[in-house]
Amino acid sequence: MSESAAIGQSPPAGGAGAALLAERRRQGLSLGDVSRQLKLAVRQVEALERDDYAGFTSPVFVHGFIRNYAKLLNLDPEPLIRTADNILNPPAPAKEPDDAAESALIARRRGIRIVPAVSTVVAVAIVIAVVVQVLNRSGPRPVPDEPVVAAVEPPSQPIVLETAAKPTAKPATGNAVVTEPGERATLRMVFDQESWVEIRDRNGNTIFGQLNPAGSRRSVSGEPPFDVVVGNAAGVRLTYKDENVDLSAHTRVDVARVTLK
Fold first, then answer.
1. How would DSSP label each residue in 106-120?
2. What pTM, to 2 d.p., does this model score?
3. What is the pLDDT of residue 179?
4. Does residue 131 lie in a domain region?
5. End of a domain among 88, 108, 125?
6. Domain assignment of residue 75, given as a range
7. Distance CA 53, CA 63 (A)
8. Main-chain dihedrals φ then ψ at residue 257, nearest 5 degrees
9. Which residues partner with 228 through β-bridges?
10. Which CATH number is 239's domain given?
């Protein structure tokens, strides 16, 4: 088995980044070589090799970048992506036993006998019986006065709670297009090249986020305005409200960021 295949099946303990770094150096590739072929900035390649994913928009982009980097080096991307997920979504710590269970466990280990709760109940019952006998011998107890309940008369006139009138929405002036709350709009995307896309609606909810293969088409509907992030933007055609959106004007380092109202 070649060294490349061995690394693809079992990433080193350092994580996905360590596997990518080791194989890149073994093949004699520089950071610039990888940056040009993957169309990523050098700092992004370095971040992948350090397992530093804080600068990426979402796990969808991290998965896509690692997959492309692994394919470039002829590595199996799936083990590397699973290793990266352990950093993106660390497992929850094991729950520690509560104090009562821990005390019982220590008592059993030390051979200490735990007195059943029944004996405590019996002791309390005996004390109550003694108190009752003492009270009976002391003679009858005075009967407390009955509580006085004051009658509350209902008000002669009904109480009316006034509410503030809701402001009337002002009509839009000029030729500006105003998007009313609840209005929905549709984005259509054609992928000439593989691309990662993430879309958030007016409430900040992610309504679309995935890797899209070349030749595919996607249609997404929601409440605008939309915050759109497109990876490999040169290979994507975006249409919004039946108008083409020029992503090149919003592209930096091959990633386009645009707000559609």
1. HHHHTTPPPPPHHHH
2. 0.40
3. 55
4. no
5. 88
6. 3-88
7. 10
8. -130, 120
9. 199, 258
10. 2.60.40
Give Cα 146 distance to the centre of its chain.
60
Start-to-end CA span in the chain (Å): 54
Amino acid in the structure at residue 181: P
Residue 129 is which amino acid?
Answer: A
Q: Is 66 within 8 Å of 38 (Cβ atoms)? A: no
CATH number at residue 26: 1.10.260.40
Cis peptide before 140 (omega within 30 of 0): no
- Contact 199/228 with Cβ under 8 angstroms? yes
Contact 23, 92 (CB under 8 A): no
Q: Tokens standing for 2?
A: 């070649």
- Please check whether residue 118 lies inside any domain of the structure: no
What count of residues does the chain have?
A: 261
Asked, for residue 21, whether it belongs to a domain, the answer is yes
Count structural domains, the chain.
2
Contact 212, 61 (CB under 8 A): no
188-230 tens-digit pLDDT:
999 999 988 999 999 999 999 999 999 999 999 999 999 999 9
Q: Give a yes or no: residue 161 inside a domain.
A: no
Q: Do 50 and 60 touch, CB atoms closer than 8 A?
A: no
Examine the fold and report which residue of 88, 108, 127 is the final residue of a domain before the chain moves on.
Answer: 88
